[in-house]
Amino acid sequence: MGRTKSSELEIVNPLGLHARAAAKLVGLANKYESEVWIGKDGQEVNGKSILGVLMLACGQGSRISLRVEGKDADKAHGALADLVGAGFGEI
Fold first, then answer.
1. Of 3, 18, 24, 75, which one is the catalytic site residue?
2. From CA 32, how far away is CA 71, in angstroms rounded?
3. Superfamily designation of domain 3-89
């Protein structure tokens, strides 16, 4: 399958991982071949599914896990972690 890259991140934007932020995350994840998994409180969902991501109900300050597996995992993980760290462009 390729490389695996994972990390723990904090949701920093005031509105949390709401619909617009989730759409940005999922849209970016879908630009890569690697599988993307987002987790919170022991539940892990497909990071390429907007419904899955929204089901995590991540408010500001939530800690999430990001796991990316595949041949472009490094690039995908870096881009997704940067998006989350930048508050989805909302701060």
1. 18
2. 9
3. HPr-like (3.30.1340.10)
